Amino acid sequence: xxxxxxxxxxxxxxxxxxxxYHDEEWGIPVHDDRTWFExxxxxxxxxxxxxxxxxxxxxxxxEVFFGFDPGKVARLSxxxxxxxxxxxxxxxxxxxxxxxxxxxxxxxxxQKEYGSFDSFIxxxxxxxxxxxxxxxxxxxxxxxxxxxxxxxxxxxxxxxxVGTTICYAFLQAGGIxxxxxxxxFQYGELKKRKS
Length: 195
Prior knowledge:
Elements lengths: L15 H9 L8 H14 L4 H5 L2 H7 L5 H5 L3 H9 L7 H21 L2 H6 L7 E2 L13 H12 L7 H10 L3 E2 L6 H8 L3
Parallel strand pairs: 1-2
């Protein structure tokens, strides 16, 4: 709990940015393609690292990746790519930066095929949020049959850095999966919402 006496999941610790992300963003259903692309990029950079590390570099990522505009990221020049690889404000991993460019291209193709990325990603649950009912953080899985299916589908569409664990985090962030703990104030709020 924090000073407002509302129960929360607890994984954010006492970090203000993590707390704000938990309260205002994590698990709230997304229907905006640019936000989906942002989560896709950030979750790929999280691989092997903590979400806190990525979240604290989010604004720098936003700058480097043109506000997470997939059209602009897909056209990243060699000079821009090299500058990103040397930029200490982000996570300087060539493979992950290349994945962001590659995934932007795949994202644009998928948008053309399905009308929007949002239509594609929500089709896996027929447009409905999966509400789990965890009582403790150690019950929350790192992946699920749903994330296995989404991972496989994204790979078939040419995406990279979209393993099942990354996909599960992505589905949680975008509200397709509600993994707030049952006692968390957000759990009930999200159950009342329509996806």
